[in-house]
Amino acid sequence: MSDTPVKQQNTAAFYGQAVASFAVALAATAIGIFNLRADAWVRGFLGIAVLYLVTAAFTLAKVIRDRQEAGQLVSRVDQARLEKLLAEHDPFEKL
């Protein structure tokens, strides 16, 4: 018999909190860069750096998620092979 793991899902409140905190952090950083007393090229450089950091963070999160999902898939395939071997094995069969 196979025990299929229950797929974990985030609640709507957790998702909303994550989106809101990301938006607040990005807005606060943008406001801080805009109000910075520096030349326009310095503010532009900091703005581009923040955007690059955000895209790198999203890419890293996706890579980590993909690796975890691939590990779960390999584990499930191995589990299915083991269950098939155990189901086909007859302990009373003569060798």
UniProtKB/TrEMBL annotation:
Claim: Transmembrane is one of the keywords in the record: yes
Domain YiaAB two helix: 14-66
InterPro entries given in the database record: YiaA-like, YiaAB
The entry's keywords: Membrane, Transmembrane, Transmembrane helix
Domain of life: Bacteria
Transmembrane segments: 12-34, 40-61
Pfam families, alphabetized: YiaAB (PF05360)
Record-linked PANTHER family: INNER MEMBRANE PROTEIN YIAA (PTHR37290:SF1), INNER MEMBRANE PROTEIN YIAA-RELATED (PTHR37290)
The protein's name: YiaA/YiaB family inner membrane protein
Organism: Streptomyces bullii
